[in-house]
Specification:
The chain is an alpha+beta fold and about 210 residues long. It has two domains: about 140 residues, Sandwich (Immunoglobulin-like), CATH 2.60.40.10; about 70 residues. About 35% of the residues lie in helices and about 25% in strands. It has two helices and nine strands; from the N terminus they run αβββββββββα. The chain has a five-stranded antiparallel sheet with strand order 1-2-3-7-6, with no helix packed on it. Strands 5-4-8-9 form a four-stranded antiparallel sheet, with no helix packed on it. Strand 8 and strand 9 form a beta hairpin. The longest helix has about 60 residues. The radius of gyration is 37 Å and the shape is elongated. The termini are far apart.
Length: about 210
């Protein structure tokens, strides 16, 4: 039975690797386009980049059978990449890789985890390109941080609770000091009032004596 589980696990490994370290392939006209992240797996908060490979389609082969070869060069001025996440989007210029003909890249720092959409826009020769592609998901940076606790959410809650308790204690101390100040102020006001009353009585007595 253990041998069966092991065999199933070994069969699943290629599929899991393909999902994590995967490029997306599509076609426009007579051209094959492939995109993916430069550094995989990609996490939020790290500078990365989108890779774009452009090559002609081979006749008689399905899209799944197509491979990148004989890359099309000179497209850095005619193609651009638009990266979209929800309502946010940015247009990135493409640079050509001088070591690999037909490979282009655009640097970007994905600050939020999630599934980004990459729109390839422009022209490949006489072929108009307006293609939406989806590179692999950007993972949350906290998942791989070390030596931070693996349960970042719980840790943040604890820190937040500690901070809140400290703020409440500080507020209570401030209120107590304010109450003491008010009490001292009230005593001062009472003393001033008694003094004024005494002066008034003295003035009244002096005036009475003069009248007599």
């Amino acid at each position: 039975m253990n041998f069966i589980y092991l065999a199933l696990f070994l069969l699943l490994i290629p599929g899991l690797i393909g999902n994590v370290f995967a490029h997306t392939v599509d076609s426009v006209g007579d051209f094959r386009l492939e995109i993916g992240w430069m550094n995989e797996p990609v996490v939020s908060g790290e500078t990365n980049g989108i890779e774009l490979f452009v090559s002609p389609l081979e006749p008689g082969l399905s899209l799944e059978e197509q491979e990148f070869k004989n890359g099309v060069t000179g497209l850095e001025k005619s193609l651009k990449l638009q990266l979209v996440l929800a309502e946010d989007k940015i247009t990135l210029p493409l640079d050509e890789d001088h070591n690999i003909p037909g490979k282009y890249y655009a640097f970007v720092n994905p600050t939020v985890s999630g599934f980004y959409q990459a729109n390839v826009l422009g022209d490949i020769g006489d072929t108009k390109v307006s293609l939406s592609m989806h590179p692999p998901k950007v993972s949350e940076r906290s998942y791989i941080e070390f030596p931070e606790p693996s349960d970042m959410t719980l840790n943040q809650l604890i820190d937040g609770h500690t901070t809140l308790v400290g703020e409440i204690n500080h507020l209570n101390e401030s209120v107590s000091e304010l109450e003491k100040s008010n009490q001292q102020m009230n005593i001062g006001y009472a003393g001033v009032g008694l003094g004024l009353a005494g002066i008034a009585i003295a003035l009244f007595s002096l005036r009475k004596k003069k009248n007599s």
